[in-house]
Records
---
Amino acid sequence: MAPSGPRKGSAPTGPRNSRGTSNGTKAASRGGISKRRSNVTGRVDKDGDLDMDAPSAANRNSRKTKRAEPNDPTAAARSTRPAPTGSRAPRPNAKTQQIIQRVFNGTGGSLSSRIASGISGGAKAFKSTRPVNAPNTMTLQVQGLKSSKAASNEGGGLKELLTFLERKAQVVSKTARNIRIKKSSINGDFVYITASKEDAEEILKLNGFAFAGTSLNITEAPGDLPPASDNNMSSTALEVKDALRNVLSLRYDSGAKLLNLSSLGEDAGLNQMGFFSGESKPEKLFRALMAVCDGLFKTAQEKRAAVASVSLAGNSIDDVLQIMSLTETFPDLVNLDLSRNHFKDLKGLQKWRYRLRKLETLLLNENPIEAANPNYAAELTNWFPRLQNLSGIQVRTPEQVAAMEAAARPTPIPQHGADFRDINGVGEGFIKEFVSMYDVDRQNLAAKYYDNESTFSIAVINSSPHPQNNQPPGWGAYIKFSRNHNKITHTSTRIQRLFVGTNLIQSAWQQLPPTRHPDLLAEFNKYIIDCHPIHGLPDPSGASPVGVDGMIITMHGEFEDQEPGTIKTAKRSFSRTFLLGPGAPGRNPIRVISDMLSVRAFNPPPGSTPEPTVQPVAQPVVQPVAQPIVQPVTQPNADLQQQMVIELCNRTGMTPEYSKFCLDGANWNFDQALVMFNEKRVRVFPYDPDEVEAN
């Protein structure tokens, strides 16, 4: 916005750090590292001779100064800084005094302090009052401060309580990262604190802990928090708040959802309040208006429902930094009018490059940028992905916006049904036993299937797609074990979080939250399971130098877990990959070589198969195979079936009738039918029939 004019007084004309000497001369020094000057007068003794033992000017101004002795009478004189000799008299640092007073009074986050800071504070007065990113935070209510011994301390003991919660939560969670409380306030008998979900879950574990002679009761705050009280606001702040509310009410059109803040400098009410007189800057008024709006609309949904358009035309704005609080108060604006301002280039708009992602209309008419940079439209179109109307010109159609959003949306790999190629029912038996035992008896499960060379790892995927109506749960119980290579880049940490051997795996499983998986047989539609044979695995007995056969099983599904120490439950999706091989002599015949688990926010698996139905299939040539736990895929049409029969005849030498029986037994999966034929041929012919025929 336009500046209000030059400041009172002029810059000081004398040396910045003038220091008087005993003979009335002045030696200028800025302190720290100084440039050596050839014309600096040396120090003389009382007889007028040059004092060779005295330190030079450069040494006197060095950072490494000698510490003054306690009884040195000249120390105070040397450290005293005289007043500047310029024309402007020294003034106290009002901003520092205001910050200290707000900290002592505990009103830094109240609406009154926000308005007062917006009127008389500096450019950063509202930095600490910016709204917290609500989707990634959690608010807790703490009871017990009023009855504690710390309540008699200065500030009511709030600072001591917050320090206790942050320090104790870090100790209890045994984590190296710092637990941080972002926001706090006192309302009645409760202290409301806001922190990230991960930190808040650790603070919840302190419920019942003793603090200053009382027991704390810590719970998650209800959805509707009590409104902030105006009792602590001064009469002047209340008058300002009411006046700004009146201005906003006169400039708000509820039918059009428009907040008209154009030409604020011509508003009679604001001029009467003195916002545009003296040294007060108009941008401070704008921050105060946004602070009042934050008090009027408590949630982001209320803001979206009430305000879709804002006009800031004719306010002499040349940089969006002056109105940055607009994007914090109304981040979901659809229409914005910046006409008749002083934007001369894209630099004045660049700080909004990653904000206002839902903006559809932006008006920059009658700004110098139109003549200075005629190609500004192409750049702004890239900055705002939903922008359709720029200064009255259509730059995108709604169809183009929809296509761009669809292209940017992650597309899962199509699922055409699971591919379950089991061998003698080993994979099916392992999965059935593993799912049930993992929920009720992890210790014996690990002892049965894992040995000293088995590995287990877990990865937390906290940025995976999920339905918008499902709030992602916290990851406090999992994050300390996570080996997600996108997040964990240090080799030593990756090594530490790979659990090798039965004992380490049992210890890790014991610290993970208890789980409950859906019944594998009754609710199979909630799983996708693939199973494939694999060759060349290490032989634990050492008998086969070329390795032995095994299988790899990939399992996608869901489970519910319960946070340790609380009754809070959450539903999550998971993927788990097992590498199975033969066990060592004297142990279980099947062992888990590798177990990789990844957990993420709940999202139903794409293309998950419906609940299977058992259908007997006649197989004259192939021995009957146990019905797998996978639903057969949809059979192809008659033409495709005929082509598959012919191709199988050519590859196997079977008659068309038997080829059809084989394909039918493999649910018309050509690759699976070919594998089944080769497996059964090895059982019937221990030698190669082609080789015998050649001989």
---
Amino acid sequence: MQLYSTFLLVAILCTIHTCVYSHLIGTGKADITGPVAEIHLFGYAEMDQIANGILQRCYARAYIVVDDDSMPDGSNNDQLTGNRIVFVNVDLQSMSLTVKARVIQRLQLMFGPDMYSMQNVMISSTHTHSNTGGYLEHFLYEIPVKGWLEETVQAVVSGIVNSIVKAHYHLEKGHVTFNTHELLDTNINRSPSAYSANPPEERAQYTHNVDKDMTLLGFHTDDRDLGLINWFAVHGVSVNKTNRLVNGDNKGYASYSVEKNKKFTNTTVSTSSDIFVAAFAQSNEGDVSPHTLGFFCTGTDQPCDGTKSSKCPWRSTCQGRGPGWKVGHLDSNRVIGENQAAKAIALYLESKGKPQHTLSGPIDYKQVYWNVPETKIVQPDGSIHALCKPAMGLSFIAGTTDAEPGIGVYQETTHMPWYWRLIRIFIKTPTPTQALCHAPKPIIFDTGEMNVPHAWQPHILDLQLLRLGDVYIAGVPAEFTTMSGRRLRKAIKRTLVKHGGDPSSIRVILSGPANGYSSYVATYEEYQVQRFEGAATIYGPHTLEGYIQVFQALATSMVTHAPITLPNTIIQPPPNTASSQAPLTTHFDPLKMTMAGRRLYFDLTPRRGTDHPIFSFGFGDVIQDVSEQEYHPSTHDVVVISVTFVAGNPRHNPKADGSFLTVEQKQNDGGWKTIRNDHDYDTRFRWNLKSKLFGQSEAIVEWEISNQTERK
């Protein structure tokens, strides 16, 4: 009787104080910043956008949830056997299947073959356009960055592994909370004409033509804040294509802002510390822009939409304007990032300690490899929709209103001009079957029928569904438009409800690009318009229907515990994902896939040479020092303090989890305190090659100060 009374008392107290732990949770963070010089930034496909320094470092942020809430004293995390899921968010444009496979290889060498696998680890990206590329294994995505770059890949793989290992050894009893709310003034639709092509009755279900809700998972123990993941749809293009400094764009800034917030940490110095880990993950941002003021022809106030009817004047291009555009794109990036950071903090604190926000229930996962061109979708009337081999449309090279290239090609082009047909002859003319399958898209790159030097775009995709109680995370290797994401989430929820799920508690999150990259997914109706997003929907007009079919099968299998049954569509990938012509296998060996793929990759980046100091100087010598004058900035002034050093090429040492610079403040006791490093937003690390012949270079360190800069 006494035991029963004690149990009852504990239950009552835990209900009040939220001390019942339903899961083991762990968070970790590690640097993935690779080479910051002489490597192309990836996202805008600008051949002259080559990195020459750092604005902010880029990170992998890992979260592990285990459904075993009984960790005996004296046990260690390697002995836990409960179901677990791993979510990793990386400050990259996207993710690749090869990188994920390498991560799993390393984890299985450390923890055995069963704890971490391709099935229970999801790696999603923020979609920043300001980090280096070279980690995607298909030729179309290698062209803008001159190949497959081991320098980048090794830094990314090591960082992701380190973040997961940290989370693994930080596992402890805790709970995860869920919250969601609307965030305004942070995103707009960049292709409203395509969105308007969706059925009126469907559009009438939504207030906005982009998703405005931020969805957040909070990680807590009874006495500590561990971190958060949130999903909000907005493109990582606040920092424009003139940029040469590596950074995580608006979501990278948001993570930085939260992680240095004194609510969660006692330090104001942003390092790779994982005291509090804040991931700002991406959702269905395909047609979503951070340029909230709209799109205008450069040098004018003339609105534009990227079509020929709104053609900009000579030497002018259609470009988006962020909220701080009059100051500069970095200020717009700060505003959009800070908006997300402020909302995330509010949602996290609101859900903290609230039983109604606390998740409980099973941990589960389902994952498949999907052979997309082999997919047939049977319609209610008996007709069949077939998906296509990959291809890119002419409007793809027109770019977007976030960053129009200005090459005389326009969005919403549904016919191929004769001169482009002529040019296409020298690339690859699509077969009649391929052209018909993709209609009304005029194909400019017939990537699905091009395999030299290897496959141009993927045929096989890694799709994944994670479950945490009543929250389901769908990992997609593509950029979904607003309505595409809405349809997929609704279809998954409808399937879960059909099998007994509670419609009032089920939440479906779309996360991506995750586990790979295959450009865009537009709805069938948006595809007909052939704006950029439709032209980059590579498997034809019924691509979204294929995704829905597969994810419905994953959801069904998850809740019924039955095998996934989709004949001729769900298979294991070939051992070499860089070549779609390799024979299919029934067993997936990540090591063979990675090593076989590497033999086909190319790398045309400049070779690293030997460093030598500038004549009459030594490494580290000051070439141009800071002025000794005192600075007293007024309210609106920003003063840049700069010093130039003799340096080596930073490609020789990316300083993982370190810094190329520090700003130190003299203390009253005569000591020095570090108050800034190269991850802070008001510092810049720039590198200049002075002489390639003699291997001489210099580094410029900058610090922006204003009246807001802290004093002693």
---
Amino acid sequence: MKVRGRGCGVIRDVRHKAAPLPRVPRSSYRYDLDGLRGIAIAFVVIFHVFVGRVSGGVDVFLLLSGYFFLGSQLRYADRDNASINPWWPFWRTLRRLVPALVLVLGVTLAVILAFVPSLQRIHVANQVVASLFYVQNWELASQGADYGAASASVSPFQHLWSMSVQGQFYLFAIALGIAIVLIRRYRPELNSMQLATPVLAVLTSVSFFAAMLWHFIDQPVNYYSTFTRFWELGLGALFVLYAPRVILSARTREILGFVGLFMVLSTGLIMDGAQTFPGPPALYPLIGACLIILGDGRVSVFLASPFMRWLGDIAYPLYLWHWPLLIVGLAFFELDEVNVLFGTAVIAVSVVLAWLTNKYVEKPLQQRGKRPVFREHRTAAALEQLRTVPAARWRAVVGVAIVVVAASMTTTPQIFYNRVLESQDATLDPRLHPGAMALAGVPVPDAEPAPDPYILADTVSPAWAKGCMSVIGDDPDELPPDRYDPDFCTFGDLSGDREVYLVGGSHAEQWMAPLDSLGRQHGFRVIPLVRQSCPAFIEDLDGIFSDECARFNENVAQRLDEVRPDLVISNSTRPLLEKGSGIDEVPASYPTLWDFLENRAIPFLGLRDNPWFIQEGGAPWMVSQCYDEERDLRACGLERDLFYAPQDPAAGELGARPGMLAVDTSNWFCIDDFCPPVIGNIYVYRDGNHMSDDYALSLAPLLGEQIRMVLR
């Protein structure tokens, strides 16, 4: 085949010339997808406020992030003069995302510090820092936080997990784009579509199957994990590569648009994504979004309308603002649930704040220049702008202010932690706060209960605070005292000639404060061998405790066998909530420890557990905070027979064993038939089932009498 070129009469033979390799499509900007982003976030807000379920809008948002961001990186990588300098896309992304984020975090934190003491928690402060550094999803996973419906006890920064996933993916996208630029320097015949497709296809597939598997292993981690969320962004990235090449009739594209929009909008009505996403059910809204990308017609016209595009413009700040407003509002107004008036006000204020943030923060601070090409340097031009252009100087000043505010917020966890330390170091006046001594007839004056119930919620007992307690994630084969110098994890009288070992979980460890005090007074040492969520046993006969707990207890038993202490103390009862029982009982596993100790003639003191205040969903009920807010003992307490069996379930078995004593502590927590949140002007509980150190210390005389009976 011969073709005559225009104007020059040159004849070219093109019979054997290869067709050009496909590149990342440079299609015109999809304004309808801006509208899709807006409507997706609008549904997120509506469902968060009024429904309390996941709408699937965030999943669509993540897919579109992969579609837009990675598409832009790959298109740039296809340029023959592309630069390998990653600073520009990183800087552009920072300028687009961080100012609004810092504004929302700063304002929310200021409001919490000024007006909402119930949210002044260390874990909330840690989430502020995690959000700033785009690792909030991992912080929530490490805290074991389920993605729950809105309530006054939920973190106001919980929703920022998705921004962290998005930010981490952006780093991957920038790195992938730079890698492709480098490869094309040496293999220019390759393009980004060829190089990116196998990487994205493999990672997206692996992520999808990981999300499917991890749903059955740990759904909360599955929900937050970047690795199991990657496939949603990866699917969007693959779509930007191949969707423009799909040729469909106009009628088909219009039908796809309607079907896709229906699927996106109906997701929250037919499924609860918090329980299943990002597993296979997340395909439903994402396939819907993909159909919209493939579609056209009236749906695309609607999504590209001025209002929908405006909604897309404010989608990011709308997402940032709505959740803190909702949670802080519920806490401030002490609302148990969202009513129509409050919910409508939250949405209206969120929209106004989002519009103002978009107009006066986002847009003015965005990077608008084109991306530099190979060997193009802009540093000198930027410095010249700072010298000559007032707007540039103003942006620089605002940028410095953002950095200063962000840096100041990173100190928040330490500030909150110092408050906790000060609270733990403070000693209550026993004349004003007699605590458990009120049960023995000591007068109780008219005084405010102490300590601060909101700071109290972040406190832990001495062994945990000192690092002498094994926590979830620690090596179960390592006993905490072995980490340090011999006496570091020894409490009480370090020179005492008798040894008391405390074994079990956090409900045993909470007795460390009075044991430490009693040890100093009566000349015995106290060594804790305790692990979070791990009661003491030799064999798990209940089938509810972890393998790590069983391994830890094997090491505890070996240590007890070696040292043969003068006394072992632990809990003798607990409610088996794992089996649906809320009444205290002796788990089948506990007597295996008692047999072990009896065979070695080691004395044992078994403490009946304190009441557990558990909400219907299984979360602890913050009873001390309840009383501070309600000032109603009955409303914030518990009827005795709702937790305690009529008699101490351990009394018979322990009473029949020599050198063992069952201590019925129920009268230490309940007055007649009622277990109040405050006794003797001291808050009894730090949360819903653990004692406050101050109340535990007030129990020292009562506990000391029981210890003397066994040691004698």
